[in-house]
Write a structure and sequence with these properties.
single chain; globular
Amino acid sequence: MKEFLLTDSDFKNISSQVYDACGIVLAEHKREMVYSRLARRIRLHKLKSFKEYLDYLEEHKEHEFSEFINAITTNLTSFFREPHHFSYLKNTIVPKLLVSNAKSKRVRVWSAGCSTGEEPYTIAMTLSDLFPKDWDVKILATDLDSNVLAKAQAGTYTAANVNGLEDSQLQRWFLKSHDGQLYKVKPALQKNIFFKRLNLLQSWPMKGPFDVIFCRNVVIYFDKSTKDTLFRRYYELLSNSGHLFLGHSETLGKDHREFKNLGQTIYQKVVYEHSL
């Protein structure tokens, strides 16, 4: 017998609130995940059921709702995850940017759904030394979950977290603790990364344009209409011929002719000439 009662009505209520807040679809097969993650909040507040927790959430929405969303959102990431994306960024996109952006000397990359920071730090490592010193290269890293964003900004990782990195990368970009169990990102890697909490379904304060947007393993949780809206917004914010990276199990679908599929979940913005 389960510790707390989670009725169909409770699950529907939770699913509805999560969808309305951030577009994530919680189908029936996510029920166990919802139970295990919210059970921690129920224990913390010394409540007896999901019904009691939902009542508590309604009464204390101002401070509890962000914790509720943080508990539900999934954060699984690693350094150089899907390495072919970073090879493409380094070997194909950067050489083109050195030509196309030569006048402005400006490059902007957005890590949307940056989780605990491995992705933006990987982007920063990839771009290091590729642009002249006088270029303005910045990375925006955003996430809905304030807890993981704080961890990303702190830039401290366990030995297991950095296990896949090369010794040369660890020596250059990280400070190691005396016992060798913790690695902290050096300021030199952090200086051009700007972390910000952002709900992708709400208004975006940044104007762009972005040359590259990483949105990997984020839209997998959205329904089609939410994905379509998000992709249209990305299109508007990307520079001409800008690139969008999705996760390995995600796709734009055939409806989105504004992007060219380059393979391996890499997409490029297509600019159409408007006929007179």
